[in-house]
């Protein structure tokens, strides 16, 4: 079935540095990628929606200059947390949908998530 | 705007007992509804989904859910819980099968032996 490979699984970085998270669709073309953030013991909150070859659409309250999203190809989307701070520590998950195909994993394929800890 | 409410933050059941996790949604049109399970530090696994048709949906691991439009609910059930079912469960709603999803707050399930 469809697989989205998300890397790294976990990362620890120093405050002020940048971290890049990658999501690759391994056997299909991901036209749209959704990026979610999950704080401890909380639900998943949509951060942004990216479409291949165009600018990402950010949800209200999400800083686009801090969370840079690039979706340059149909198989790769990246989220870069710039100048990370401890409050950015969270679990980040990507998911892609297959337009018009609701039979594959409900139309969504999730990455395994990235646990970011900023110290 | 779409929203999802999972009234129960934490549920504890004994192994072998039946389970029902509640989910209420708000959406202006026919919703696309999902239940996902998440083990600690892991991604999400789809249990089942409802798009249209039969309102009783069968999923993996013996789970089922019933869509009740009149109650705006999509409750998840399992007749006999196994210890391996302990995890966090999320209900989600979307306007299509491929657009953005809105998740509920999640329900943590603890299973006692």
Helix/strand/pairing category of chain B: mainly beta
Please state roughly what percent of the residues of chain B sit in beta strands, choosing from under 5%, 5-15%, 15-25%, 25-35%, 35-45% or over 45%: over 45%
Structural class of chain A: mainly beta
Task: Report, as a whole number of angstroms, the end-to-end distance of chain A.
Answer: 37 Å
* Major sheet characteristics of chain B: 6 strands, mixed
Oligomer: heterodimer
The chain pair with the largest interface is: A-B, 28 and 21 residues
The helix tally of chain A amounts to 0
Rg over C-alpha atoms of chain B, rounded to the nearest angstrom: 13 Å
Outline type of chain A: globular
Please state the CA-atom Rg of chain A, rounded to the nearest Å. Answer: 14 Å
Q: Averaging pLDDT over every residue of chain B, what do you get?
A: 93
Overall mean confidence score, pLDDT of chain A: 88
Biggest β-sheet of chain A, characterized? 7 strands, mixed
Total count of strands of chain B = 12
Order of helices and strands of chain A: EEEEEEEEEEE
Summarize the structure.
The complex is a heterodimer of chains A (119) and B (113). Chain A is mainly β.
Describe it.
- The complex is a heterodimer of chains A (119) and B (113).
- Helix content of chain A is 0%, strand content 51%.
- In chain A, the strands form two sheets. In chain A, strands 2, 4, 5, 6, 9, 10 and 11 form a seven-stranded mixed β-sheet that branches. In chain A, strands 1-3-8-7 form a four-stranded antiparallel β-sheet, with no helix packed on it.
- In chain A, strand 7 and strand 8 form a beta hairpin.
- Chain A has strands at residues 4-7, 10-13, 19-25, 32-38, 44-51, 57-58, 67-73, 76-81, 90-97, 108-110, 114-118.
- Chain A is mostly beta strands and 119 residues long.
- Chain A has no helices and eleven strands.
- Chain A is globular.
- Chain B has 113 residues and is mostly beta strands.
- Helix content of chain B is 0%, strand content 52%.
- Chain B has no helices and twelve strands.
- Chain B has strands at residues 3-5, 10-14, 19-21, 24-26, 32-38, 44-50, 56-58, 64-68, 73-78, 87-94, 101-103, 107-112.
- In chain B, strands 2, 5, 6, 10, 11 and 12 form a six-stranded mixed β-sheet that branches. In chain B, strands 3-9-8-7 form a four-stranded antiparallel β-sheet, with no helix packed on it.
- The N and C termini of chain B lie far apart (41 Å).
- The model of chain B has no long low-confidence stretch (mean pLDDT 93).
- The interface between A and B is medium-sized, with 28 and 21 residues.
């Amino acid at each position: 079935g469809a697989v989205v490979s998300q890397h790294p699984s976990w990362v620890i970085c120093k405050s002020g540095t940048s971290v890049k998270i990658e999501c690759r669709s391994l056997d299909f073309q991901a036209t749209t990628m959704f990026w979610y953030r999950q704080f401890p013991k909380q639900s998943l909150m949509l951060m942004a929606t990216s479409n291949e070859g165009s600018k990402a659409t950010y949800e209200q309250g999400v800083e686009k200059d801090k969370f840079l999203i690039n979706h340059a190809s149909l198989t790769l989307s990246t989220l870069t947390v710039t100048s990370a701070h401890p409050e950015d520590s969270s679990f980040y998950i990507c998911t892609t949908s297959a337009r018009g195909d609701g039979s594959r994993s409900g139309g969504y394929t999730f990455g395994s998530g990235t646990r970011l800890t900023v110290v | 705007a779409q929203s999802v409410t999972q009234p129960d933050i934490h549920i504890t059941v004994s192994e072998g007992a039946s389970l029902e996790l509640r989910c209420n949604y708000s959406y202006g049109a026919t919703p696309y509804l999902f239940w996902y399970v998440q083990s600690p530090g892991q991604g999400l696994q789809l249990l089942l989904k409802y798009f249209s048709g039969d309102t009783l949906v069968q999923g993996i691991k013996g789970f089922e859910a019933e869509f009740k439009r009149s109650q705006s609910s999509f409750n998840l059930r399992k007749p006999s819980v196994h210890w391996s079912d302990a995890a966090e469960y999320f209900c989600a709603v979307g306007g299509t099968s491929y657009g953005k999803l809105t998740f509920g707050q999640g329900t943590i399930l603890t299973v006692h032996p």
